[in-house]
Amino acid sequence: MRLGSGRPKALVPLGGKAIVQHALQRVLGCPEVDEVIVVVPAGHAAEFTELVLSPPPAHVVLHVVDGGDQRSDSVARGLAALGDRVDLVLVHDAARALTPSSVFARVIALLRAGHEAVVPVMPVTDTIKQVGPVRSDGLADVVRTIDRTSLRAVQTPQGFRRPVLERAHEAAIGAVTDDAALVEQHGESVTTVPGDVRAMKITTPHDLAAASQWLGEGAR
Questions:
Q1: DSSP designation for 126
Q2: Are 190 and 184 in contact (CB under 8 A)?
Q3: H helices present in 94-204, as ranges
Q4: Which of 8, 58, 67, 125 sits CB 3.0–4.6 Å from 39 for a disulfide?
Q5: Percentage of the chain with pLDDT > 70?
């Protein structure tokens, strides 16, 4: 069961604050970040503005803009809202609200070292099976077991040199689940950097409970 709160996921409470506030706190904990665009579901800009601009951050330019119908549309609108001087862009999912600031710093460091695109990853620990078509009885047979040694689970923030990401969005073909896939489509290389277990994605009530536990352990 996904978070069925009747409101955008980023506004769901977690430890006394909205999920988006936890995410923003960790983004702003990275001193290299100097501009933040919060892309929100259409019609909810006022709610988000009250949360993320109260009080306004002292060292960061921060804007709230409406997103689009698809994820890629929302990222494109965020890109369009960036100031002209921004040359390195991080795309982050607020649902990964507890991503430590150190992960942002690692991604930025590799971009500044000359890499075009950087994503944080974690090793895949489960055995992965490829299955065939789902039959009429709702079941499917295993086709093969995939060697997991070269597999990685991707997290955010995903970092890009701005021209690379803009070109990738302009030339996008079909729907993809992350911006790194768009960059790959465009023929650019994507470098990985170690992620963090706390960068888990909050999607279900179980995830929300796990995130609450992380917060409690951090407080202690």
A1: S
A2: yes
A3: 101-112, 162-170, 179-185
A4: 67
A5: 95
Of 106, 172, 121, 183, the residue nearest 151 (C-alpha): 121
Strands (E), the chain: 13-14, 17-18, 35-40, 61-66, 88-91, 117-123, 128-131, 142-146, 152-154, 158-161, 191-194
158 with 179: CB under 8 angstroms? yes
Q: Read off the pTM.
A: 0.91
Closest among 180, 199, 195 to 96, alpha carbons compared: 199
Give Cα 176 distance to the centre of its chain: 14
| Alpha-carbon gap, residue 68 to 87, rounded angstroms | 23
Q: What is the pLDDT of residue 1?
A: 47
**212's tokens:** 């609450």
Find the length of the chain: 220
Strands 191-194 and 117-123: parallel
- The answer on pLDDT for 214 being more than 60 is yes
Q: Which helix (H) or strand (E) holds 67?
A: none
pLDDT digits (tens, 9 = 90+) for 106-126: 999 999 999 999 999 999 999
The position carrying tokens 């040199």 is: 161
Token readout for 143 is 């086709």
Preceding amide of 157 cis, omega within 30 = yes
Percent of the chain with pLDDT over 90: 77
